[in-house]
Amino acid sequence: MGLRRVLLLGEGNFSFSAALCGAQGTHVVATCYESEEEAAGAAGAARSIRRLRDSGAEVLFSVDCTRLGEHFLPGKREFHRIYFNFPHCGRKAGVVKNRQLLARFFHSCTEVLAQEGEIHVALCNGQGGTPVDQPRREWHNSWQIVAVAAGAGFILSHVHPFKAETIEGYKCTGYRSQDKSFCVEGALNHVFTRSTAPLCFTPLSCKTQLGGQKVSFQVPQVLVDKINRGFLEENSSHPVRTIKEKLSAGLSQVFPLQNSSSCLPLLHQGHPGGVCHSNIFWITLSPGEAPSTEKMSQDLADTVLFSHFGQDTDKNVQEGCPGPQQFYLRPSLLPHAQAIIKKRAFSPGTIEVLSGPVFRKCRITPHSMPVFHEMLIVLVVSRGTESSCIQMLVENINTTLNSLHQGVSGVKPTISLQEATSFVTELNDFAAFEWQLGEIQHFLCVGTDPDPSGSCVGVIRTAPDEFKSHELVVVSFSLNLDLLAMLLCGISDWRMLWTSDRRFLRQFPGGELRLFKPFSLYPPSYVHDVSFWLPDGEGFDEVAFHTLARRVSGEMVVSIQLKDNFQQAGTGRRSLCYRVTFQSCDRALGGRGAAEMQLRLREEVQQHLGVTLR
User: Are 61 and 29 in contact (CB under 8 A)?
Assistant: First the structure.
């Protein structure tokens, strides 16, 4: 790496700059807002300026931190670090003016900061408005530094104490624009970095194998950044691949194992019977590319062992589901497993492993995913031995997870079996959707709480092997690899698994699992309400509303809560009011950006869901 360029702004007596100068490989540019004559009048300033110049540093005066592009020519920019200690508009300026100063400062930094540079802003205790401030001021009475920086495209990546006593010769000055010191006890240094650019949802066409031929289709906008990411491919270091490979390796030590995940088509055709229509991503193929129904029937079995696929077709047609020539993104790998079982002869005790992304429309929660990586483990066993085989598989999975946990020190995700009896209405979205696919014998839950709500990471099904002999039983384990990765690596938000920010995968070199360290701290949230009248006599598809919010915001809606359900007397008209919270986990989101998303959401809700805005 070449010479590191460091810019210091708003220096009072230049004592902080003087303490930094002379470091090997670093070029210091120290500046202040005052003229040279005014600055030299501060106590000790002349001595610090002389030391800076003697060490080869640049000292500049009358530099406005909100107009940095005007002070540095293009060839003199690209600062690797920018310091702004205890910024203040001067005298008795209030929080609003100081927020405005910071906003203009951050926007100015975009012109002179290196791509992977850092901005260090030191603030007195309580000013920043983050949870690290102790005591913490009320939000409206703070400088709201994280939200202000987000408006310019920066995220808070570190916060640590500003230890003035460790900086040789440093003396704070500038209290109320005077040559007086002020209290820096409890002060914090806030380190900001550039956020990745906002997602650009340009239309995307995708190719897949279907009915013996390649077809292309338009990817739903909400999935544009998630399709074909290759997290399970051989050269991937993503945590979901590491977990999948380790689980497979563990299983292969106990059972003969076959892997059939290479060319599974993304699309299914017809009706996913038993599955709620609003949970499916329906797809229209590009013109002239639909395979023949006869060819499709040869490649995808109509009979499905573990699910209700293929049932209730007449009912689905009556309820307005798409016809048999419609296609949808696979919500499960079960049909592929059943097709493989129908074609091949399996010896009892042989394991078939399928894995890949599956797609399901769902409500917005921290653990509800419109796409995740499913690992499907299928085992054909002799009748009467299924219980012991299930127990053996669970123990094998736990052994693998325990070995992974030892190197991570995150949550120890011990899997336990929970009977699928009375918990159907209390399940998380993953488990609830699995129930739609067919009867479940056991839930695979983390911990020992008998309520699997929020803790279900997989399900177990058993069924007679109808394609060979009723003396054999097919056992299937469906695991959500994304939930396991979140638990093992301490990732609190599923969206982080799909980030395009390289700082995520850098934490897992060579696929090694580690405890995840967030690179965007205390992201600001913005709350907006939307209320509307429903069409007369019609219900409301809440999943469609959540999916629309995902698409409009680019997955920056973190919560949607029903706040009011009102029915007008006399007319019977019904009105709903939802509280929508916008927050990003990995990129900058400012207040203006959230407000623009809210306006688009209102427009789209009225246009696509047939409601009337209030």
Answer: no
Residue 290 CA, distance from chain mean position: 34
Identify the pLDDT of residue 467.
59
Burial 3-40 (b: 16+ CB within 10 A, else e): ebbbbbbbbbbbbbbbbbbeeeeebbbbbbbbeeeebe
**3.40.50.150, 3.30.497.10, 3.30.70.60, 1.10.10.10: which CATH number matches 4-194?**
3.40.50.150
Q: What is the pLDDT of residue 481?
A: 95
Burial-class residue 139 by CB neighbours within 10 Å (0-12, 13-18, 19+): exposed
pLDDT of residue 291: 61
Look up residue 364 and give its two tokens: 């917005």
34, two tokens = 């005052």
pLDDT of residue 5: 94
Three-state secondary structure call for residue 418:
strand
pTM score: 0.89
409 and 514 Cβ atoms separated by less than 8 Å = no
Residue 165 neighbours by CB under 8 Å, 6+ apart: none
Residue ranges of the chain with per-residue pLDDT less than 50: 177, 296-320, 422, 425, 448-453
- pLDDT for position 293: 53
- The tokens for 87 are 């910024």
Which CATH number describes the domain made up of 526-613? 3.30.70.380
Other CB atoms within 10 Å distance of the CB of residue 386? 18
Q: Quick one: DSSP state of residue 324?
A: T
What is the rounded CA–CA span in Å between residue 355 and residue 373?
A: 7
